[in-house]
């Protein structure tokens, strides 16, 4: 059994030690926010934070994760209040959403290291593939999240989980339907 800490909780995985961390998280821990994209590390949809570093969970085995601290998108914040999550919504840097968890985790790891990254640093730290092409908005979102992290700005863009559609529409006017 492999022991590690996932989202602040001790976890023991009874899987083949060579199992990619991605599958242990998704199948054994039911943390399905971490997405399978390509399986070879190119798309980075499976990015999680391991000991403060953004890593592709399809390329790291459960054995290599032994004793380490892993944060998945579910552990970033339970109420979507993390500055990266708020800024991605506020800057409309989410389209289909498939790549979003990996992007959010890479951005969060970057901002842990550097709360005021340049555009070039953002592009280097977040080379994730996005079929929808949110890249210009992504840079703005990370810069905005950095300002929030530095307490230069506040945003409240994403409604809390479990909110009714009517309350969400009031909280985020852009969600109102035009009838």
Q: Would you give an account of this structure?
A:
The chain is of the alpha+beta class and 179 residues long. It is built from 7 helices and 5 strands; from the N terminus they run ββαβββαααααα. Strands 2-1-5-3-4 form a 5-stranded mixed β-sheet, with helices on both faces. A hairpin with a 2-residue loop joins strand 3 and strand 4. Helix 3 packs across helix 6. It is globular and about 45 Å long. The termini are far apart.
Please summarize what this structure is.
With 179 residues, the chain is of the alpha+beta class.
Poorly predicted regions: 174-179
**Terminus-to-terminus distance:** 55 Å
Strand coverage percent: 5-15%
Largest sheet strand order: 2-1-5-3-4
Q: Give the H and E element order.
A: EEHEEEHHHHHH
Helical coverage, percent range: 25-40%
**Count of DSSP-assigned helices:** 7
Secondary structure: elements and pairs:
Blueprint: E1 2-6, E2 9-13, H1 21-28, E3 47-50, E4 53-56, E5 69-71, H2 73-76, H3 83-90, H4 100-113, H5 119-125, H6 135-149, H7 165-171
Parallel strand pairs: 1-5
Antiparallel strand pairs: 1-2, 3-4, 3-5
Helix pairs in contact: 3-6
């Amino acid at each position: 059994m492999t022991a590690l800490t996932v989202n602040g909780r001790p976890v023991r995985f009874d899987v083949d030690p060579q199992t990619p961390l991605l599958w242990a998280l998704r199948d054994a821990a039911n943390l399905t926010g971490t997405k399978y994209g390509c399986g070879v590390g190119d798309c980075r949809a499976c990015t999680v934070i391991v000991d403060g570093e953004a890593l592709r969970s399809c390329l790291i085995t459960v054995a290599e994760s032994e004793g380490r601290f892993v944060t998945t998108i579910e552990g970033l914040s339970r109420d979507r209040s993390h500055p990266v999550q708020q800024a991605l919504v506020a800057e409309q840097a989410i389209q289909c959403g498939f790549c979003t968890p990996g992007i959010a985790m890479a951005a969060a790891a970057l901002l842990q290291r550097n709360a005021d990254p340049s555009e070039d640093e953002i592009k280097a730290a977040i080379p994730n593939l996005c079929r929808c092409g949110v890249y210009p908005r992504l840079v703005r979102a990370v810069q905005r999240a950095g300002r929030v992290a530095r307490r230069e700005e506040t945003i409240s863009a994403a409604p809390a989980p479990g909110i009714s559609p009517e309350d969400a529409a009031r909280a985020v006017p852009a969600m109102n339907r035009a009838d």
